[in-house]
Design brief:
By secondary structure, this protein is mainly β. It is 0% helix and 54% strand. The protein contains no helices and eleven strands. The strands form two sheets. Strands 2, 4, 5, 6, 9, 10 and 11 form a seven-stranded mixed beta sheet that branches. The radius of gyration is 13 Å and the shape is globular.
Length: 115
């Protein structure tokens, strides 16, 4: 199974920034898209941002203008630059990779934003 490893989570004050990183143990040609989801306690998992192999991006309305998703040169890595963080951004953030018809998920990294 494809392994996804996230890093970069932590505790920050509102208005601060974090940069999440994820690397997938999969061949570059097999990954169609990568992205980030998040899940807060007692809430459903929600899409944060995605980026396709062609460079198209998609963001949740709640993070537009604050978060930026990008892919590394290796194409099996993805980053999420999170600026102007808000307490409502507090959640476990999960990296994902979309292969041909199959999703793979990281174990998550905790992001906590204090007010």
């Amino acid at each position: 199974q494809v392994q996804l490893v996230e890093s970069g989570g932590g505790l920050v004050e509102a208005g601060g920034s974090l940069r999440l990183s994820c690397a997938a143990s999969a061949r570059t040609f097999s990954i169609n898209a990568m992205g980030w989801y998040r899940q807060a306690p007692g809430k459903q998992r929600e899409l944060v941002a995605t980026i396709t192999s062609g460079g198209s991006t998609n963001y949740a309305d709640s993070v537009k203008g604050r978060f930026t998703i990008s892919r590394g040169n290796a194409k099996n890595t993805v980053y999420l630059q999170m600026n102007s963080l808000k307490p409502e951004d507090t959640a476990v953030y999960y990296c994902y990779a979309l292969l041909v018809g199959t999703d793979y998920w990281g174990q998550g990294t905790q992001v906590t934003v204090s007010s």
